[in-house]
Amino acid sequence: MCQLLGMNCNVPTDICFSFEGFSTRGGKTDDHCDGWGIAFFEGRGCRFFLDAKPSVFSPVAEFVRNYPIHSTHVIAHIRKATQGKIALENCHPFRRELWGRYWVFAHNGDLKDFHPKDFSFYQPVGNTDSEKAFCLILDRLREYFPQSKPPLEKLYSVLAEITQTLAEHGTFNYLLSDGEHFFAHCSTNLCYIVRQAPFAAAHLIDQDLTVDFSELTTPSDRVAVIATTPLTDNEVWTQIQPGELLIFQDGLPHRFI
Fold first, then answer.
1. Which of 10, 88, 105, 107 is most buried, judged by most C-beta within 10 A?
2. In this predicted model, what pLDDT tens digit does every residue of 192-202 receive, in sequence order?
3. CATH assignment of 3-254, given 2.40.440.10, 3.60.20.10, 3.40.50.300, 3.90.226.10?
């Protein structure tokens, strides 16, 4: 299946180190060779890169690895196709507008017997189960809250209900953000780490690369990195429990009961 990578932090930060290891899994250390993508929120804007080539061979991925774009919300994806042909329109993440903000979504999993026809506003462009699920999520949110974005607790409640329904079709790990709130849902595999003071060195699993974050950060910085599987081998990653929907804000996970 595909793999997910996300970042949420309290100050704009680049994701070059994590993306260096993550993108290696797109054809070198793993077989997720069917395209990749990454989205960076910058204020209300969203910088977006997609390529149907494997990330290890993609000149666009090489550009991203070497361009320190600073953001507080990042979502990335490397694809191993289960539904939908290998094509640019089927590369994650997907992006749509809702309530005057961009929303970005990436999915890891496979939704069986999932053939929705009742799209009311948002339409899928490609033919993946993932994009169909994203369109349904936004359709439902728009139906519940047609005028504007609701308070977070109400938004979370409806999103959790929609997520539970979609997850009945199969594996539904996903990352979702509008640049203001960052949601992470675990169906099978999703974990995170929060880096904050005192910062230390981190070593990638997929490459022999170490970064000492104490040399690159201030004591008030806080960064949460979310991934399908851990990216480093000398840090303690926290596994998100199956069925759990977390909200990350300012580099910390939050739960609504």
1. 107
2. 999 999 999 99
3. 3.60.20.10
pTM metric for this prediction: 0.96
What is d(CA 115, CA 99) in angstroms, rounded to the nearest whole number?
26
Structural domain boundaries in the chain: 3-254
Show Cβ contacts of residue 43 under 8 Å, excluding neighbours closer than 6 positions. Answer: 179
How many residues appear in the chain? 257
Residue 27 has a CB neighbour count (10 Å cut-off) of 20
Where helices occur in the chain by DSSP H, the ranges are 16-24, 59-65, 129-144, 152-167
pLDDT, residue 257, reads 61
- Residue 35, judged by CB atoms within 10 A of its CB (0-12, 13-18, 19+), counts as buried
Catalytic residues: 2
Neighbouring C-alpha atoms within 13 Å toward the C-beta of 200: 8
Do β-strands 36-42 and 252-254 pair in parallel, antiparallel, or remain unpaired? unpaired
Q: pLDDT tens digits, residue range 42-89?
A: 999 999 999 999 998 999 999 999 999 999 999 999 998 788 788 999
Do 95 and 50 contact (CB within 8 A), yes or no? no
- DSSP letter at 214 equals G
Backbone phi, psi, residue 102, to 5°? -75, 140
Residue 129 pLDDT greater than 90, yes or no: yes
